[in-house]
Design brief:
Length: 183
Amino acid sequence: MQSVFLELAGLNEVHKEIVVIPASAELSDKLHETISADFQLSKRNKGIAFSIPFKKRKLHISDQDSQIKIVNPKFYCIITIVDKEWSRNCIDAARAAGAKGGTLIHGHGAGVPADFYFPVILEPQKDLVFIITTKNKVSTIRKKILTELKLEKTGKGIIFTLPVIRTSGLVENWTRERMGVKS
């Protein structure tokens, strides 16, 4: 249980880094192996790594019988961009819908300033919330976030989903990885 005092003082946040590396499938596999080992992603709260396809490609393969087999990603990344004061509500809504957690990144809006008081321009602070979840939970989590944060209204925020083709360090992976199954 985290200290209420630390939370009120804003001292309970953990510093996180996001590294984006464009990589081929072969390099991606090597990166996952290296990063997982070096950062001990198999241990709880050590971090996660995931790969999303950056170039348009078909998510299917042909087998020897020339039948097409659809390869559906097992995980998806739900990304929500909201004003800073709504990020905790976003994570709470996602957890209520079955998400194991999320990663919160602080940012600044680059659009039209929210308020203008000469000579000071006040730009709204934005938060990005990343949630990696299994395919069967995506729809429920998205709907809960949309409803709770009223994202259908203009200016409330943006939500979108990307397929994840490989993960390392997720709680959902721990059982499979201990059994020797790669995600």
